[in-house]
Amino acid sequence: MAILALVAIGLATWFVLARSGREEDETWARIQRKGLMRVGMDASWPPFEYIDEPTGQIVGFDVDLARAIGQRLGVEVELVNVGFDSLYDALYVGKFDAIVSALPYDPLLYRDVAYSISYFNAGQVLAVRAAETEISEADDLSGKRLGVELASEGDVLGRRLQKKIEGLSLQPYVAPQDVLWALKEGEVEAVLVDAVSAYQFIAAEGDVQVIGHPLTDELYVIAVQLDSPLLLKAINEALVEMREDRTLERLQEKWFRVMSN
Amino acid sequence: MNTVLQSLSRQRAVKLALAMALLLVLVRPTRPVVPLGPQQEVVTINPRMGVHTRLTDEVEEWKIKQTLSMVRQMGAPWIVEYFPWAYYEGKKGHFDWSHPDMVVDHARAQGLTVIARLGFVPEWVRPEDTITSYLDGDHYDDFGDFVHAFVTHFKDRVRHIIIWNEPNLSMEWGYRPVDPEGYTDLLRVAYIRAKEADPQVQVLAGALAPTLAPEGDPEGLNDLAYLQRMYEAGAKDYFDILAIHAYGWTSPPDDPPAADKINFARAELLRQVMVANGDNNKTCLITEGGWNDHPRWTKAVRPYQRIEYSIRAYEKALEWDWCEAVCLWAFRYSWPAKGYRDYFTFVTVDFLPKPIYFEVQTYARGERR
């Protein structure tokens, strides 16, 4: 009987504590204690993260982003360069506290990691020449030639649009840069390419504009371990602030301009 | 009065029970009937095209049929499929062939030739805390019995069996040091038992993992060195065809082979080992291989390259007179692999064909420019 009573008290205590809303986060506690957040990235994806050859340092949009988050959290940031294939595994085993590496949100991994809100959408965008006046949305593509990278997501989307837009013809090219050059040189009236390629081309070559929002989503997010709810909360709050004070916008302008040079 | 009420309630109870029984019959989940359908034929300009399917863990029969139908419509007459020993022989001598029957019969109805890879050791054969690729020499006869049962059961339906997978990797050899002589012994047992069951069955030596790992490497052994040691251990008499894994990684299929390089044409070097050992009359089957088009994976290529390389690989099968077919990895998965592996497939989990599917199909129809 006494044992039963003890079990009941234990269960009740656990129930009260579990519902008290007090979250624990050892990672966040350590970051605060040491004043250091370790960020994993694969420095091979310009302009988001890459090695600056003259200095040998990792630079890019995500580096600035991670440091800006660190500043808002009041901690230093240490960068850990890991191949993209190994980023998640390295996070799971605690090699670093967060992945900031142009990491696309993956709904299939929601049980494995916790994702922040998105800070960049690298999905497929519709782009036309800067002087274009007839095309302002996908529905205006009837009778037009649409450039895509063969077998890319843009190609898949283009094939879908072809089924519902009369007279739309697809013109495949082998790389996003070829698609954008074909647009600039008038081989096609519009193109579907990923946002990173489009912004890089616009910054470097001009004469091309992106129309509206991306037609597909490839949302770059920050990933932390599932048991880091307080760290995630702090990162999300920082991202919201950076969106509101236009820091994210400035980072985008800066790094796509850097790449064009 | 009481008797009348009792009689009424009894009648109600009987009616209620009947209604419940009827309801149970009506709502009882029944196994959906998926007919094999009429016998189909693969239409292709290249009869050496193939894919590795992954139907081992596909539960729903309609998905099995749909997968195989799409393989046929793409124009590939060959499939490689995995048939895990542990799934079918849960207890020594007790076999359940219902799932593999389903896969094989649907494949044949679609006009496909099945190459069956055998492996995956049941718990009752191996010590605790070992993995499914662990089989010690004392139990080779158990595997031989399984091979005999498999070949007997699928006689005239499955004509090709592969013995094991990538035994030159430690992880495929029970996390023990790799052992070409030990594998040759296993191959001998399996070959003899397979031929006892059906002298016509074609026994494939397990494909080796393309690797440059030197002697003594804890993870594996160079595939060329491993094959040579198999020959030295007497493997020549115990297989009919060599299975090969030929991944191109970032190189095109025409990238010339070299002993210190992993590429698609490394298959030619394995062939040279066969010829050097007097086995030039035998053929090979590429049972895995291909390219990946993940946007960020270090061993991936651009999507258009994957298309061009894959089609060229199929063409090379026609040029290599010793190669019976090229079966590329992998047609479709039953569920997402959650990462770069998903970019090896031709069709998504939910049966959406990728552009590579249509391009290969166009090639198989002889309509590609």
Question: Can you give me a brief rundown of this structure?
Answer:
The complex is a heterodimer of chains A (261) and B (369). With 261 residues, chain A is α/β, with parallel strands linked by helices. Chain A has 9 helices and 14 strands.
Could you give the topology of this structure?
The complex is a heterodimer of chains A (261) and B (369).
Chain A: H1 2-19, H2 26-34, E1 36-41, E2 44-45, E3 49-52, E4 57-59, H3 61-73, E5 76-81, H4 87-92, E6 98-104, E7 113-115, E8 120-121, E9 124-129, E10 145-149, H5 153-164, E11 169-173, H6 176-184, E12 190-194, H7 195-205, E13 208-211, E14 219-225, H8 229-244, H9 247-260
Parallel strand pairs in A: 1-5, 1-6, 10-11, 10-12
Antiparallel strand pairs in A: 2-3, 3-4, 6-14, 7-14, 8-14, 9-12, 9-13
Chain B: H1 2-27, E1 49-52, H2 61-74, E2 78-84, H3 85-88, H4 98-109, E3 113-119, H5 140-153, E4 160-163, H6 180-197, E5 202-208, H7 223-232, E6 241-247, H8 266-276, E7 283-290, H9 303-319, E8 323-329, H10 355-364
Parallel strand pairs in B: 1-2, 1-8, 2-3, 3-4, 4-5, 5-6, 6-7, 7-8
Q: Any idea of the CATH class of the largest domain in chain A?
A: Alpha Beta
Could you tell me the CATH topology label of the largest domain in chain A: D-Maltodextrin-Binding Protein, domain 2
Uncertain segments of chain A:
11-21
Cα Rg of chain B: 24 Å
What is the tally of beta strands of chain A?
Answer: 14
Span of the ends, CA to CA of chain A: 78 Å
* Tally of separate domains of chain B: 1
- Sheet/helix structural class of chain B: alpha/beta
- Give me the number of helical elements of chain B: 10
SSE ordering of chain B: HEHEHHEHEHEHEHEHEH
Quaternary:
heterodimer
Please name the fourth-level CATH homologous superfamily of the largest domain in chain A: Periplasmic binding protein-like II
Name the biggest interface: A-B, 19 and 18 residues
Overall residue-averaged pLDDT value of chain B = 94
Q: Got a strand count of chain B?
A: 8
Q: What is the CATH architecture assignment of the largest domain in chain A?
A: 3-Layer(aba) Sandwich
